[in-house]
Amino acid sequence: REPHFADFLILIVVGILSACLVARPSWLLRQASSLSSLPDSSSELFYSCEKIKEVHGFWTDLQCELWQIIEHNRSLNMSPFLAENIPAEDRFWGTAKTDPVGSGRNGRIVYHLHLHKNMGSTFCQWFGAYNRVNKRDNCNVLDRWWWNELREDLHYQYGAYIGRTRKEQKHVYDQIQKAGWIYVASEGSLSDEPIFGSQGPYYHSIVIRDPKEWVISMWHFEKQTNSSSLDEYLTKHLWGVPDFYTRRICGTSCVHRDPLTIEDFLQAKSRLDQFDLVLAQDMVGSDPNATRKIFQEEFPALRFPSFDAKHNKGTYAPHQFTPFQIEVIQNVTAMDKVLYEYAKILHQERLKSYKARARQ
Prior knowledge:
single chain, mainly alpha, 4-stranded parallel beta sheet, 15 helices, 6% strand, globular
């Protein structure tokens, strides 16, 4: 029989359906490809998030979304903040650094972003045992070098001790050089114009602890002057949250932002990737031999005290948390928990690279 219009219509419909079966939507392919190690499922995206929660101890779908940033190794463009890309006339630290870190000659100064209750005081003791540091002020950069009276919102515990702008950074760097310090700390935040890389003025280091432990440690610290219960601390005295770590690594523009966005988290992750040394606190204290190896490899020009004695991680008697306490802690540390899990991976990769070189 002669073909009719209805026959052509049927062929078109069948073709469209076949194409849909063969070509899955690109957005779904992008989502699924990042979790290729997981089994297929009719509810693959939901299953993947549930698996991520199980592996990393997450509790929200937002954390799954943030972990995709980690898993895909997404990053902002950091080239403007790399020393190698800064014009020679703007390099206030002079020529490229060629000596070992902390050598005091032409080596980079160690700059530690001291997140409160994250081993910052311990690092100051380690670096200050045999080397020139500012012991009197817990190794911090002196506030008179960076304090800006016009920015009261960016003072102690918020500001960039190393200098908020490049002009301030030059002034601070010159003062550190005059003092002869090989290690300095900041209990505030990163600058919005940081300078990373082996050709720059600083070697960036940071320690990140489990944010739940951080909240408890801050509570015990608060109890020294205010004998409050945990409930009182969580409802009346809780400080620096939500997401204390993320804000300070993101930079001075993030410390007061409300709320933080996924883009802010991406900025924090991108900057953390540029740090020369990222350690997870529980791993530092649990394996002194590995910690010693890290310091020997990273700082061959420096001497350190023994790492044999276990570090006091600020652990306390077991606490039976109420559902309310757990909910509050989780609500104020969701992004920080993701960064902490990432810090553990970076720490593990560092140890693996040392072991690989030792076998060569």
